[in-house]
């Protein structure tokens, strides 16, 4: 019936694997790790102010 190479049973079994199998915690773990990495990069970029390290003018 379907012109594509995937059958509806393969699609539903793959969907069950994604939703109820071990793939969903792995994807959530990947998303959490990427979020923590992005937060760390953002903090490191915002805290690296080289203006604070420059010598102050003598008055």
Task: Produce a short descriptive summary.
The chain is mainly alpha-helical and 59 residues long.
What this model shows, in words?
Pfam families: TOM6p. This protein is mainly α and 59 residues long. It has a domain at 22-49. It is 64% helix and 0% strand. It contains two helices and no strands.
Structural class designation: mainly alpha
Sheet with the most strands, sense and barrel status? none
Radius of gyration: 25 Å
- Helix coverage percent of residues? 55-70%
Low-confidence stretches: none
Strand content: under 5%
Shape, per Cα inertia axes: rod-shaped
Number of strands: 0
Q: Which sequence of SSEs, written as H and E, runs from N to C? A: HH
Distance between the termini: 85 Å
What integer is the average pLDDT?
A: 75
Put simply, the count of helices is 2
Pfam family, one: TOM6p
Transmembrane segments: 23-44
InterPro entries: TOMM6
Keywords: Membrane, Transmembrane, Transmembrane helix
């Amino acid at each position: 019936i379907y012109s594509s190479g995937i059958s509806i049973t393969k699609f539903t079994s793959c969907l069950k694997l994604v939703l109820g199998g071990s793939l969903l915690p792995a994807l959530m773990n990947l998303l959490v790790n990427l979020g923590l990495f992005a937060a760390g990069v953002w903090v490191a970029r915002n805290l690296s102010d080289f203006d604070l390290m420059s010598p102050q003018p003598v008055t």
